[in-house]
Sequence to fold (90 residues):
Amino acid sequence: MSIFNEEPFLIAEIGVNYYDIAKKENISNMDAAKLMVKEAKDAGCNAVKFQSYKANTIASKNSPAYWDTNEEPTTSQYELFKKFDSFGEA
Fold:
C-alpha cells in the first residue's frame, strides 16, 4: 500500500511486555528488548517506540485489576505498574 506514492513508515510499540519475554525465554531484560527490536525489523517495521510511564501518572492507587489474576496475581493497577517504574533508568 502506498500513500502519495510512498510506502508507509511502520513503527512497532514496545512496552513493558519485554519483561514477560525475558522471563519466558530466561534471558535478561535488555536481551529481551533487543530481541523484540529484531522481531519488529524482521516483520517489516522501520522503527520501534519504547513506551514508558510512572504508575502514579496512569493509575489511581485504588484502581482494581482488569486482568486475569490467575495469570498475574497483583490486584491493583497501581501496584502492578509500579513494578515497572524503573523502566529506562540506569
